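Do me a favour: review this protein, sequence plus structure tokens, and tell me how the chain folds. Record follows.
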Amino acid sequence: MEYIHAALLLHKAGKKVDEPSVKKVLEAAGVAPDDGRVKALIASLEGVNIDEAVQKASVPVAQAAPAGEAKSDGKKEEGKKKEKPAEDEKSEEKAAEGLSSLFG
């Protein structure tokens, strides 16, 4: 996780996210960097728009339903069918899965 944080910190500061920079940030934080993990991180970030990836990874917070709309009998409404996720949702899920592999 600290490797991702180092990359995000460098990106936010407007610095180039490369191996020497990530290693310096990790060392400054008191972490002994693993060369293999640093190389894997840099390779996985190649060609990735970090701002866009962070924005897509943000999860909106669900709001609670107003209290007046709650059913008083405690029974669930029958006859509702589960909706299939839209194609956009499927592609977002796949993108999130790819990003989650970075968090190892």
